Automatic annotation (TrEMBL):
Pathway: Carbohydrate degradation; glycolysis; pyruvate from D-glyceraldehyde 3-phosphate: step 2/5. It is an enzyme of class 2 (transferase). ATP binds at K201, E323, G349, G350, D351, S352. It is found in: Cytoplasm. Signal peptide: none annotated. Belongs to the phosphoglycerate kinase family. One of its GO terms (cellular component) is cytosol. Keywords: ATP-binding, Cytoplasm, Glycolysis, Kinase, Nucleotide-binding, Transferase. It comes from the Bacteria. This is Phosphoglycerate kinase. PROSITE patterns: PGLYCERATE_KINASE. Substrate binds at D21, F22, N23, R36, H59, L60, G61, R62, R118, R151. The lineage of its organism: Bacteria, Bacillati, Bacillota, Bacilli, Bacillales.
Amino acid sequence: MEKKTIRDMDVRGKRVFVRVDFNVPLDGTTITDDTRIRAALPTIQELRAKGARIILASHLGRPKGKVDPALSLRPIGKRLEQLVGTPVIFSEESIGPVAQAHVEKLQPGDVLLLENVRFHPGEEKNDQDLAAAFASLADVYVNDAFGTAHRAHATTEGIAHLLPGVAGMLMERELKVMGEALTHPERPFTAIIGGAKVSDKIGVIEHLLAKVDRLLIGGGMANTFLAAKGYELGASLVETDRMDVARSLMEKAQQAGKELLLPVDLVLATAFAADAQARIGSVHDVQAHEMALDIGPETSRLYAQAVITSKTVIWNGPMGVFEMERFAAGTNTVAQAMAEVHGVTIIGGGDSVAAIEKAGLAERMTHISTGGGASLEFLEGKILPGVAVLQPMDGVSKA
Ligand SMILES: Nc1ncnc2c1ncn2[C@@H]1O[C@H](COP(=O)(O)OP(=O)(O)O)[C@@H](O)[C@H]1O
Ligand SMILES: O=C(OP(=O)(O)O)[C@H](O)COP(=O)(O)O
Ligand SMILES: [Mg+2]
């Protein structure tokens, strides 16, 4: 269903609560990829041009409801300030009197950034009282956080029951481009899943299997599948309580005649460190003290082949710990193959996009999405909770 956007709403002089996804990859407090911040600029600039008083809210990482200074949004505010070209006021509290006082001082066109909303335990629980505390800061709500639209949290869902809510320009564009590219995909249609959020994303694979012809699994996700097949994975990241799910997915893929590719070789390290000793080993040959931090060269070759011969490819989740040079080859090989596809290529996810930017191949993709888990759930055909709650195009305002 088409949703109203900021173009359909009178925001002049109003206090506008904008949920953005500024969950950018960090190295300490250094932003390693600012794609998600840049992606929010069109909405921010449009609202400024219309004379709105802008209140930006985001999460950063997973502080689990506690204040964690390492996950403060303050450094993100600094980067935003450079990009937007106007001062960005920072509120060290996202609700309560401190936030209220900042909001009261806002002039039309001013930009305020709230501290990490996940410092409050109620955010991820979609707590009503917390949603009300956020809602009390503003007159209207804008969701521009496509990357977090698969979460029903206080700032992505709850608040939109209390304020009239519309989509931001990034949200609008993501839904349009992803929808068009993936409704009638040219085949072979391939999905590549990797990364570290195994329990979060493994459930989506069942739905993906119904849509795609090929599924390539790498990164941390592959370890759980390999373990489910009976391989010893040593000290690798394996989610043992998801091995049953992995096993049943492999059976379903086989029954449905879908290609499900798993690594045949791995880059094995003795520690999770940039200078760790590493070797290439077969999946049959992982020692107890070793961890798989990348797919091996033979796997990379097979995956690249599967990618290049596809007509539509969607990729979420790096093939290895690409942040460390020693474990970046698998991700880079698959990225290069994506660049050579004659067809539609979409890559999504905070870290996957950082990897493709680092490889210098972003321009070669059809679409760079700010959403990882969100893209996968969108592809599933789900109406994302952060979208469902926004006002329909011809609907009546709730306010
Ligand atoms: N084999 C692996 N073991 C541990 N971590 C991995 C492995 N492969 C990839 N990763 C990590 O996965 C992270 C990204 O996962 P995720 O957040 O799911 O992807 P995205 O942000 O693209 O959606 C990266 O930081 C990367 O280092
Ligand atoms: O980075 C994100 O997702 P991604 O890692 O799938 O790209 C989003 O900001 C959502 O974060 P979350 O998975 O902690 O809810
Ligand atoms: Mg990520």
